[in-house]
């Protein structure tokens, strides 16, 4: 079963990237100078923070502004080993840490490390899901967990919009034709996005980012998500729909997490409902689609697909999908952008500071959210 993640109100027509992000996730504009400090004997002492990413990865997810913010508010131990720590090394360092900042490649926080981290108050992940990073027991210990997944959602939303526009206008096909020496022999005419009907599977944060970006095109949005109420759908300027209705739309975008309940949820019968000439986008997880049935449908050539994710990654060099002309392929990069990655740690650190200040947070992960994460 799918569960929506709510980070804000109804989408608005916004042009500036930072304003779009604010519409998706309300963020306070100020950060208190007291958050990273403990008052002892009349003096303020900085809380100890452990940043796990080595320099090679840190420069991708931590801006100079973020480094300054961390140093200003915390007594930081930076990873200067040139490599990722092992689980054992993390367990040996965790006893004094009050805040731990992680990213891709960081070791998961084992139960042993959690037992030793008696002073730990917050874990911030400058990346996506924390499902495999922290154990469920962390919540019962009162440790607060933060993830930059909502910031990544904006990058994914932009990817979906780009893939959709390219697909509707047959740009990859026309490019290949022109390079092969042809001119207009194919006789292809693209379709406009404006006024189209779009089916969305799962009202996740990436889906909401995509819907925000679709607002100027005056589209009709149908959403399948069993946890989404009529009122919540209306707040997104969308309508609730069945999975069958969504799979019958001329444009379909998949945003479902990989869970036992979503594995191969798009069955052969549902895939057969995709209309001829439709555009199908999957930027979430490959295993939510019945891969064999999907290949059969794709090989018919009756619709176009933009795929960023696959059941097995990396995609095999001899995969037959690589040769299909009606498929746009990208190597699981929908959430990867220069600006997006560089802002990940800063957004998480700011939110941890807000949390320590007992202010409203925007990137905090609850135990319930952890349970339905991919």
From TrEMBL:
InterPro entries registered for this protein in UniProt: D-2-hydroxyacid_DH (IPR050857), D-isomer_2_OHA_DH_cat_dom (IPR006139), D-isomer_DH_NAD-bd (IPR006140), NAD(P)-bd_dom_sf (IPR036291)
Signal peptide stretch: none
Keywords: NAD, Oxidoreductase
Alphabetical list of CDD domains matching this protein: 2-Hacid_dh_8 (cd12167)
Domain D-isomer specific 2-hydroxyacid dehydrogenase catalytic: 63-365
Superkingdom as given in the UniProt entry: Bacteria
Domain spans labelled D-isomer specific 2-hydroxyacid dehydrogenase NAD-binding: 162-334
Pfam families: 2-Hacid_dh, 2-Hacid_dh_C
GO molecular function list: NAD binding; oxidoreductase activity, acting on the CH-OH group of donors, NAD or NADP as acceptor
Family statement: Belongs to the D-isomer specific 2-hydroxyacid dehydrogenase family.
Name recorded for this polypeptide: Hydroxyacid dehydrogenase
Source organism: Paenibacillus piri
């Amino acid at each position: 079963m799918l569960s929506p993640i709510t980070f804000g109100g109804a989408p608005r027509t916004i042009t500036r990237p930072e304003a779009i992000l604010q519409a998706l996730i309300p963020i306070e504009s100020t950060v208190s100078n007291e958050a990273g400090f403990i008052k002892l004997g009349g003096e303020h002492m900085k809380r100890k923070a452990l940043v796990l990413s080595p320099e090679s990865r840190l420069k991708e997810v931590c801006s100079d502004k973020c480094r300054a913010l961390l140093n200003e508010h915390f007594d930081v131990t930076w990873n200067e080993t040139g490599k990722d720590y092992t689980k054992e090394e993390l367990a040996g360092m965790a006893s004094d840490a009050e805040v731990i900042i992680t990213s891709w490649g960081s070791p998961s926080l084992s139960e042993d490390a959690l037992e030793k981290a008696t002073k730990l108050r917050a874990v911030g992940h400058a990346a996506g899901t924390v499902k495999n990073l922290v154990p469920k027991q962390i919540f019962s210990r009162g440790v607060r967990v933060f993830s930059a997944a909502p910031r990544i959602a904006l990058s994914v939303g932009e990817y979906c919009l780009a893939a959709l526009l390219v697909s509707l206008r047959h740009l990859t096909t026309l490019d290949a034709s022109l390079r092969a020496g042809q001119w207009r022999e194919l006789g292809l005419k693209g379709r406009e996005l404006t006024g189209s009907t779009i089916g969305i599977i799962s009202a996740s944060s990436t889906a909401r980012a995509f819907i925000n970006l679709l607002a100027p095109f005056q589209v009709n949005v149908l959403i399948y998500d069993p946890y989404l109420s009529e009122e919540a759908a209306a707040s997104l300027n969308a309508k609730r729909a069945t999975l069958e209705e969504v799979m019958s739309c001329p444009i379909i975008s998949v945003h479902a997490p990989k869970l036992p309940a979503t594995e191969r949820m798009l069955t052969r019968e549902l895939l057969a409902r995709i209309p001829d000439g439709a555009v199908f986008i999957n930027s979430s997880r490959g295993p939510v689609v019945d891969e064999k049935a999907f290949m059969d449908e794709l090989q018919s050539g009756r619709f176009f697909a933009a795929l960023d994710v696959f059941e097995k990654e990396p995609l095999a060099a001899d995969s037959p999908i690589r040769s299909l002309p009606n498929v746009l392929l990208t190597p699981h990069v929908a959430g990867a952008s220069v600006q997006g990655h560089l802002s990940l740690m800063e957004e998480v650190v700011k939110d941890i500071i807000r949390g320590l200040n007992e202010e409203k947070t925007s990137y905090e992960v609850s135990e319930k959210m952890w349970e339905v994460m991919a």
